[in-house]
Amino acid sequence: MTWRAMDYSEHDVEELLKENERELSRLADAAAGLRDIIGKGESRSGLATAVVDADGRLQSLTLSPRVLRMDVGALAEEVVQAVRQAQENQDRQARELLAVPGSQQIGLAEIQRQFTEFQEMFGAETAGRNDRLRRLAERDPRDD
Fold first, then answer.
1. Is 31:117 a contact under the CB 8 Å cutoff?
2. Rounded Cα gap, residues 38 and 59, in angstroms
3. What is the 3-state secondary structure (H, E, C) of the chain?
4. Which of 25, 26, 40, 109 is most buried, by CB atoms within 10 Å?
5. HSE, side-chain direction, 13 A CA sphere, residue 68
6. Average pLDDT along the chain
7. What residues are paired with 40 via a beta bridge?
């Protein structure tokens, strides 16, 4: 298909530009949202609760006073369960934000890397497309 100025009205060009801008804005919002994700998790017994940041790093750990009656091995397992649950919660939120299928086994760092790469590529392509559309919109069809 050849692009000719007369194939598109000024309204069509403006709509395409607006659609590109909306998509870039949505991508920027999603990227910002990734940084704000906080994962929360609890051990199976509920004796340990963990909170992780967007990178999956432990931010806080709360232990029930009942853990004082546990042996060290059981306490360690409670902590590990709570942290894993928090990390899975954080990962699930990131996947939902980016609409990544749960069956894909990639970590948040890889999701963020791919998202940044996609956002840069999309931005460059959109800028080029917008420039071409602006030139088409400014061109007088009578010049042909």
1. no
2. 9
3. CCCCHHHCCHHHHHHHHHHHHHHHHHHHHHHHHHHHCCEEEECCCCCEEEEECCCCCEEEEEECHHHHHCCHHHHHHHHHHHHHHHHHHHHHHHHHHHCCCCCCCCCHHHHHHHHHHHHHHHHHHHHHHHHHHHHHHHCCHHHC
4. 40
5. 3
6. 80
7. 51
Is pTM beyond 0.90 here? Answer: no
The token pair that represents 49 in the structure block = 């609760």
Q: Assign residue 106 a region (left: φ > 0; alpha: ψ between -120 and 50; beta: otherwise).
A: beta
The C-alpha atoms of residue 41 and residue 87 are separated, in whole angstroms, by: 7
Instruction: Please name the amino acid found at residue 95.
Output: R
Model confidence over 57-114: pLDDT tens digits? 999 999 999 999 999 999 999 999 999 999 999 988 888 887 766 555 566 666 667 7
